[in-house]
Design goal:
Layout (H helix, E strand, L loop, with lengths): L5 H4 L22 E4 L5 H6 L5 E3 L2 E5 L5 E2 L2 E2 L9 H5 L3 H7 L5 H27 L11 H7 L6 H6 L1 H17 L13
Antiparallel strand pairs: 1-3, 2-3, 4-5
Helix pairs in contact: 5-8
The structure holds iron/sulfur cluster (2 copies).
One iron/sulfur cluster binds next to loops.
Length: about 190
């Protein structure tokens, strides 16, 4: 998350990759984020957070209202959600551990952002055409499978490039960002 705590990911010798990203705040990776019992109720009230419960846990919805462009506007607020201070995606963990250099991590982020944009555009076109979807980009492929569109030859011919983008996007998110590959859409930070 852009909001990701600079202090925990950006040592003096490491540049912050999250300020180039924001995919964990903007609704791309997750649709919801956990509210912890230690989160400040006054802060939640101030943020006008519409929380909801699921499986005994409380969540707020993403995209987060605290995100401005790719940055977290709440970054300096001590009361910021606890999950935001704790969360590290797979890429950030790899970068922090020195397993991937800055330039390579940024290249992955740029690729994900570019693919994500194209998939969102595709989603918009499908919505306009009345093809149902949950509106969550990583689950678009699953939706297309479920509603039989991937078996539909004429649909596949019309949107072959976009379908390929969906595959590549889903695989990239699984490979580089989610902690549990294959559990993409179910994860919540
Ligand atoms: S998805 Fe990862 S790299 Fe991107 S902002 Fe979140 S923690 Fe940082
Ligand atoms: S408060 Fe919102 S924008 Fe900031 S890190 Fe958390 S989810 Fe991201």
């Amino acid at each position: 998350m852009t909001g990701t705590d600079n202090s925990r990911l950006c040592t003096a010798e490491k540049r912050n990759i999250c300020i180039e990203c924001g995919l964990c705040c903007d609704g791309t990776l997750f649709q919801k984020a956990i509210i912890q019992s230690t989160d400040d109720p006054a802060f939640l009230k101030e943020m006008a957070v519409e929380s909801f419960s699921e499986g005994g846990k409380r969540y707020f919805r993403l995209p987060c209202r605290g995100q401005k462009y790719k940055l977290c506007a709440l970054y300096n607020d001590e009361r910021r959600y606890k999950i935001c201070k704790a969360f590290k995606c797979r890429l950030l963990r790899q970068y922090a551990a020195g397993e991937i250099p800055y330039e390579a991590a940024i290249a992955v982020i740029k690729e994900a952002l570019a693919l994500g944009l194209r998939v969102k555009e595709f989603l918009g076109r499908l919505k306009a055409a009345g093809v149902s979807s949950e509106g969550f980009t990583p689950s678009l492929l699953r939706d297309l499978k479920l509603n039989g569109k991937l078996e539909d030859l004429s649909f596949r011919r019309s949107y072959s490039k976009q379908i390929m983008d969906c595959f590549m996007f889903t695989e990239l998110l699984k490979r580089s960002f989610y902690e549990i590959p294959g559990k993409a859409a179910e994860c919540a930070k």
